[in-house]
Amino acid sequence: MSLSLSSGGLATTNPSSNVVASSNPSAPNQRTTRPIVTGTSVIGIVYKDGIMLAADTLCSYGSMAKYKDARRLKVINSGCVLGGGGEYSDFQAVCDLLERNSLENHCTSSDSLYQDDDDEGAPEIWSYLRAIMYNRRNKMNPLWNDLIIGGYDKVKKEPFLGLVDKIGTAYTDNILATGFGSYLAIPILREKWRPDLEEGEARALLEDCMRVLFYRDCRALNRIQIAKVEMADDGKALVSEPYEIETNWDSATFVDPKGGLEGDGGW
Q1: Catalytic site residues?
Q2: Topology of domain 36-246, CATH
Q3: Is the pLDDT of residue 174 over 50?
Q4: pTM
């Protein structure tokens, strides 16, 4: 048997076609052959007292800015947050899977033995998602997401930040980004990041990166969320309500006519 994110739970495999099918034999095969409604960059950094993630709230349908309140940061448990770029429905499926696993842990554990601090730490969730993404890739039915997992490492007693992409590639670092953030935000983070960043400095740095992405990425929005996990008390995960960052369009490259034309620069 193999893992599946379908509502039926475990999937069955057709030996003749090697295709993952639903547990309902009459249901058609369903695959994400290409992303349809997508979110863009997620950025994560480790700072002095924990980890912090940032993402905007826009999901695009092709080139159309379709949903402007699509929240792509989620608290998994008290010590872990998840951010996802790519196909939004696949991100929702990943979140549903993690919620079902958490509920199963609560329901199958003895009340006298189960404690809140028995929740999986961020490294365990990162490793689990790596296996899920690699499994789906091998079934030629990938979850079209790049995921950043941040939180508290209960074994090493330190912050944890890891990334998993849609084919199961996984790695950890002190600064991570998906989408266009890999090209536009990582250079800023490499220049300005340091291990002893205070919380306010970390937030300002992430806002600077999200501002640049809004200027330069056609699928980004200036309405963002910030998530963090504090190291105090073995982790405390929070996600902010969406808010708009300030932008400045007074730059000469935004104001002056383009191409030497008298007008808005259009042809």
Answers
A1: 32
A2: Glutamine Phosphoribosylpyrophosphate, subunit 1, domain 1 (3.60.20)
A3: yes
A4: 0.81
